[in-house]
Specification:
This protein is 48% helix and 0% strand. The protein is built from 1 helix and no strands.
């Protein structure tokens, strides 16, 4: 059973949109 996934992302700008896009990309690659 997996209880948590940990990862790191980098973004060009510290904006909500950039963080969400990078997070979605990371989760997609992990699945």
């Amino acid at each position: 059973m997996v209880r948590a996934i940990r990862g790191a992302i980098t973004v060009q700008e510290n904006t909500r949109e950039q963080i969400i896009a990078a997070t979605e990309e990371m989760i997609t690659k992990l699945m």
